[in-house]
Amino acid sequence: MDTGNCADTHPSVFFPADGAGVIAAQRICESCPVSAECLEYALHHRIPHGVWGGTSERQRRRIHSARRLRRVAANAQSAA
Length: 80
Known about the structure:
3 helices; mainly alpha; 0% strand; single chain
């Protein structure tokens, strides 16, 4: 993401060891013009580590779960 707020930031910032580091990385993403694309990239490629598109690893797991449940519900509804 060459046009992202992260382009001039060392990558290690987005792979923090603690919660304070996650918050600092998320702040960089807050006003980023490509944060949505960044998040979708991480979700599509199932990247398990780091802050992507302003989301933590835990947040992305929740997004995956919610999307999976919606797909299952939609498939069940269309099969009925």
